[in-house]
C-alpha cells in the first residue's frame, strides 16, 4: 500500500458547448470540447482506519464530490479500506470550471493508487459516471471531444498552449438550475444539431485563425445566464476591449475566458477588470 502522496486536480474550460437533446432520463446530451487549464486543486491522500475528508471548502462533507467518489470506489470494488483525504481548493465553486468533477476524478485516481486497485479504463468510466456528468472527462487526457451525457469521450491532440484570462463575477451558478432554465427557454424548439469538422477546429486553433473560430466558440448556456446576469455581457465586452482575441463562457458559467496574445496583455486586462476574481492560466496539452 502506497503511503502519503498528493495529486493536482485541474480546472477545465469548454471551447464550445452545444446542448443537442434532452434525454428520457432527464439529463441532456451535449457536444463539447473540454480542455484542462493550469489552475489546480490539491488533493492529499494517506492511509487511515476510517474515511476522513478534510477540506477548506464550505461544503458539507457528504455533499462533497470527493466523499461521493470515495464511497463510489468502495462500493464498486468492495474494498473497505480507510483513507484520509485533504482537499485544498483553489478552483472557485459554482464557476463552470469543473472543480468538483475534477476533484472527484482525481480522487478515483488517487484511491486506485493508494489501495492498489488496478482499475481499468472501463472501471474508471463506470465509477465516474455514477458521480457526475463531467467526471469521466477528468479520467482521460487534457483535451477531449465530449458527447452524450458526458460519458462519450474522444481524446484529442492540440500541440499548442494558449494563454487565457479567467474572470468570475461574484455569483455562483448551479448547473441543474442552468439546465432547467435552458429547458424553459427552449420549450418546443428544436435543439442544435452540430456537425462540423473537429480537426478543422483544432487546426484553426493551432494556426490562430481567430476569425474562423469566432463563430465556433459558442455556448448554449449564454442565452440562459447572460439574460439572468447582465454583468456577464459587460465583462465579455471589457475582455474584447482589453485585447482578448477570443472570449467564451465555460460550462454553465459564470466564469468567462479570454484568449490573449501574451502575459502582459492578459495582466493589463486583469487589472482593468478587477475587482472580480480573476487569474491567468495556460491550457494543458
Give a written overview of the molecule:
This protein is α+β, with helices and mostly antiparallel strands and 285 residues long. It folds into two domains: 5-155, Ribosomal Protein S5, domain 2, CATH 3.30.230.10; 163-282, GHMP kinase, C-terminal domain (Alpha-Beta Plaits). Helices cover 33% and strands 29% of the residues. The protein has nine helices and ten strands. The longest helix is centred in the middle third of the chain and has 16 residues, at 99-114. The model has no long low-confidence stretch (mean pLDDT 94).
Total domains: 2
Helix content: 25-40%
Could you report the average pLDDT, rounded to the nearest whole number? 94
How is the main sheet built?
Answer: 6 strands, mixed
Q: Report Rg.
A: 19 Å
* SSE run: EEEHEHHEEEHHHHHEEHE
CATH topology of the largest domain: Ribosomal Protein S5, domain 2
Give the termini separation.
Answer: 31 Å
CATH 2nd-level architecture of the largest domain = 2-Layer Sandwich
Question: How many strands?
Answer: 10
Query: What is the count of DSSP helices, taking H or I runs of 4+ residues?
Result: 9
- Principal-axes geometry comes out as globular
Low-confidence stretches: none
Q: What portion of the residues fall into strands of 2 or more residues?
A: 25-35%
Which structural class best describes the helix and strand composition? alpha+beta
> What is the level 1 CATH name of the largest domain?
Alpha Beta
Amino acid at each position: 500500500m502506497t503511503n502519503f502522496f498528493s495529486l493536482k486536480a485541474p480546472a477545465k474550460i469548454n471551447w464550445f458547448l452545444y446542448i443537442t437533446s434532452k434525454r428520457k432520463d432527464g439529463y441532456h446530451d451535449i457536444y463539447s470540447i473540454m480542455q484542462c487549464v493550469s489552475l489546480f486543486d490539491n488533493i492529499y491522500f494517506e492511509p487511515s482506519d476510517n474515511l476522513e475528508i478534510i477540506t477548506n471548502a464550505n461544503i458539507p462533507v457528504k455533499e462533497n464530490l470527493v466523499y461521493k467518489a470515495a464511497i463510489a470506489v468502495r462500493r464498486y470494488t468492495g474494498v473497505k479500506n480507510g483513507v484520509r483525504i485533504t482537499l485544498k481548493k483553489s478552483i472557485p465553486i459554482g464557476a463552470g470550471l469543473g472543480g468538483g468533477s475534477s476533484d472527484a476524478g482525481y480522487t478515483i485516481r488517487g484511491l486506485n493508487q493508494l489501495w492498489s486497485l488496478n482499475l481499468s479504463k472501463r472501471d474508471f468510466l463506470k465509477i465516474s459516471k455514477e458521480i457526475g456528468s463531467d467526471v469521466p472527462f477528468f479520467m482521460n487526457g487534457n483535451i477531449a471531444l465530449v458527447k452524450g451525457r458526458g460519458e462519450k469521450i474522444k481524446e484529442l491532440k492540440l500541440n499548442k498552449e494558449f494563454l487565457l484570462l479567467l474572470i468570475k463575477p461574484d455569483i455562483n451558478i448551479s448547473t441543474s438550475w442552468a439546465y432547467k432554465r435552458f429547458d424553459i427557454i427552449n420549450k418546443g424548439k428544436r435543439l442544435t444539431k452540430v456537425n462540423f469538422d473537429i480537426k478543422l477546429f483544432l487546426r484553426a486553433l493551432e494556426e490562430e485563425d481567430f476569425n474562423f473560430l469566432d463563430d465556433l466558440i459558442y455556448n448554449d448556456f449564454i442565452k440562459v445566464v447572460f439574460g439572468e446576469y447582465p454583468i456577464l455581457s459587460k465583462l465579455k465586452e471589457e475582455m474584447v476591449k482589453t485585447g482578448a482575441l477570443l472570449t467564451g463562457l465555460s460550462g454553465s458559467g459564470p466564469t468567462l475566458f479570454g484568449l490573449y496574445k501574451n502575459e502582459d496583455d492578459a495582466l493589463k486586462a486583469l487589472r482593468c477588470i478587477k475587482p472580480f476574481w480573476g487569474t491567468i492560466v495556460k491550457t494543458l496539452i
